Amino acid sequence: MKNLIQVLPKKIINQIAAGEIIERPSSIFKELLENSIDANAKKIDIFIKDSGNIFIQLVDDGKGMNINDARMSIKKHATSKIENIDDLFNIKTKGFRGEALFSIALISQLEIQTKDKKSFMGIHLFVEDGSIKKEIPINMKSGTRVTVKNIFYKFPARRRFLKSYNVEFNSIIKEFYKIVLAHRDIVYRFYHNDKIMFFFEKNSLKKRIQEIFNEKDKNLKYISINKKKFSVRGFITIPGTSVKKGNQFILVNERCVTYMFLHKKIIHAYNGIIKDFNKISYFIFICANPSIINYNIHPSKKKVIIETENDIGILIQREIKNILFFQYKVNEGILNNYSILHNYINIEKNFLYRNIKINENKKSYCINYHTNVNVKKLCFYVLQKKKIETFQVNKKYILFTFKNDNMVLVDQHRAHKHILFEFFLVQKNIISEKCFPPIKIKFLKKELYFFKNFKIYLENFGFYLSILDKHIYLYKIPKKIEKSTIYKMFKNILISPYIVENMKKNKKMFVEFISIFSSIKHGTILCSKKMETLIRDIFSCKNPTYTSSGKPIFFVFNKNFFQKIF
Question: Is the whole-model pTM more than 0.70?
Answer without folding.
Answer: no
